[in-house]
Design brief:
The complex is a heterodimer of chains A (292) and B (510). Chain A has 292 residues and is an alpha/beta fold. Chain A is built from twelve helices and ten strands. Chain A has an eight-stranded parallel barrel, surrounded by six helices. Chain B has 16 helices and 26 strands. The two termini of chain B are 21 Å apart. The chains are: A alpha/beta (292), B alpha/beta (510). Chains A and B meet through loops of A and helix 9 of B.
Amino acid sequence: MNSLYRTLLFVPGNNPGQMVKADIYGADCVIFDLEDAVSIHEKDAARDLVKHYLTDLRPETCRVGVRINAQDTPYYEEDVRSMVSVKPDFLRLPKSETAENIRQLDKLITECEKACGIEAGSVKIIATIETALGVYNAYQIASASPRMIAIGLGAEDFRTDMRMTRSEDGQEILFARNLISLAAHAAGVMPLDYVYSNFKNEEGFIADVRFGKMLGFTGKSVIHPSQVPLVHQVFTPSDEELEHAKKVVAAYEEAMAKASGVVALDGKMIDMPIVVRAQNTLEYAKASGKEL
Amino acid sequence: MLNPSLLNEINQIPGFENKKAFAGAFAAKPNGRMAARPIKFVTPGTNKKFSLDYILDAVGLKDGMTISFHHCLRNGDAVMLYVIDAIAKKGIRDLTLAVSSLSAVQDCLLPYFEQGVITAIDTSGNRGKLGAYVQQGKLKKPAIYRTHGGRARAIETGELHINVAFIAAPCCDKYGNINGVQGKSACGSLGYAMPDAEYADFVVAVTDGYTETALDYVSIPQTQVDYITEVDSIGDPAGIATGSIRVSKSPAELVISKYAADVIAATEYFRDGMVFQFGSGGMAIATASFIREKMLQDSIVASAGVGGVSGFHVQMLNEGLIKTFYDPQDFDVTAIQSLGTNPRHHEISASAYANPFSANPYVNMLDFAVLSATEIDVDFNVNVLTDSYGKLLGAPGGHPDAAAGAKLTVITMPLLRNRLPMLLDHVSTIVTPGESIDILVTEYGIAVNPRRQDVTDMLRGKALPIKSMEELKAKADKLTGKATPVEFSGKLCGLVEYRDGTIIDVIHQI
């Protein structure tokens, strides 16, 4: 299992056929959905199914999270209690609007971890921000708890809340994407790009992933298995990028070994941010199966 | 392998006295000579075109004889019903139906089985109502299921003697030359009819594409054809050929296809000048499309493609990615048109394609073959004939032939279908022996046959999800629970013949 969150694949928590195949598509992360994919008549059944799945069939090759129902629904508390008991890597909270939403969830998870004898802090949080208020509070949300590992934009609800007109290339959500990326990096968590729902438009999807990567997003939520390799492809460094990164890291390590404060490559000084970028490149290359 | 008491039971059945048990893919050491072919003679200007009624009298068809058909019209065929109905009206009974395969459309023949017109089947596969009829134990003797190459071998060695071959002919001239690429019912290659035409006592062309003009493209020559009968329609074009290429859209099948292409590309068999076969199902075409990308990437060209052809194969042929194609069967309109027009697209007989008792069947050229399976077991034995309950649904076809011939045989198969595991301790029916299978590719990983240490070595260090068969089996069992083995009745309904004529398994009554 790699340490990246390039792809977070949503899988309906009430569909056994899709659940048993969830880990075959190579996503870095699978999110079993108890929220929008599950009708109100099946909330308890889906919860049981995901719980049994995580107990008996938990995949070994990817991280597993659960999207629980929002805090203003009657399903929220039971979702948290039952899911924490099977220790998913994280819970994804929809409609996160304030730091208080996150603190409440943190408190409930802490209580459940204690009750289940799970090490405190094991279950992380990813917040989905999907309202104007949420975007406005993005940094406070991202930094509200040590459990926070990422924030992402829920574009459809955000558009509705903002009374936006939807465009093909998503111009209207550009500001929100920028803000989410900025807030996440400022808080030291991962910014996750929004779901591109038209999975049949491969070209549009790839362009969108590329644009998100340019904005600083480190991964993307996806709703169809066919989107997984496309995201990974965008996040795979080219051979040239990889070669350059290897040289930078080698030069840095050599300088460290010599206890020299100056790192140089091909007669040029290398600043620390370039070294960090090169290290990131190596990590993405490794996750993509490239030989280092 | 085959239980000795079962073999003993088989040897008691008239016609199967000399059948032996399968002893290995290349254990047979054949000798002797091919079957004698009938001497034919006509004086110049002799008319061959008559009514079917006249022809049935002229060929002297009698009770107990063997009649044959080809399956190149697939699920659009109307010829078998037309001919058998005419035979039934003459009061002839107790015939053996020797046909290269039977599709769902032949369910319409059931009444002729029930009336006793047909009492034995010699085929590659049958399903639906005819499959059920066989498995109710209603035939006079067990049906025999042969591979494409095995059927050609049986005809050519005289084991399967055909009294009259009725050949559905999309186009036939007045001299008796036949092709499958012209006419309103064009079906493409007539490869599966060629051994019948060469060895049957009488050959009757049944055509809806009669012409007075001599054909310039000839699949079956006039020298083999005794009679011609004209009909309004030999079949439904919609059932004969599909309109377009079907590439799998199933995300799980695409994962399997991608793994298959990756694993092949990681072996030494993926090289410039290679020869390959892949099927025409959605998953096979998806695998081919990934292989095609890799060929373009690495500037690799295949010297030949072998086996059934679809539009995707034609695309690769036209792109120059495959230099030449050897084609015993076509599946769609594009493939049929290509066969008729592209000089690099060659029609070959079932015998040339796969008969193991020949100097070198085309399957022996294969560097790799990508094949499917309904089930596989931990010893890599493959079933493509029956479902998980032992019910007839498929056909051996060219599976055992291509698997035996290819240097690398890759099976692409989902580990689970609905709630059932497809990887078992024992398959319901062994059709292709595990010794011919080198790699299993599933959505949960890839297993290499331990007999192929060289392949394991080739794949070492490559970024592929290689697992042992036992690991994959454990995964399947964990997801579905362990499958309870199906219990079969003792009554024998069918023999599954390996390509060399030995018996590899049997079909039971259900």
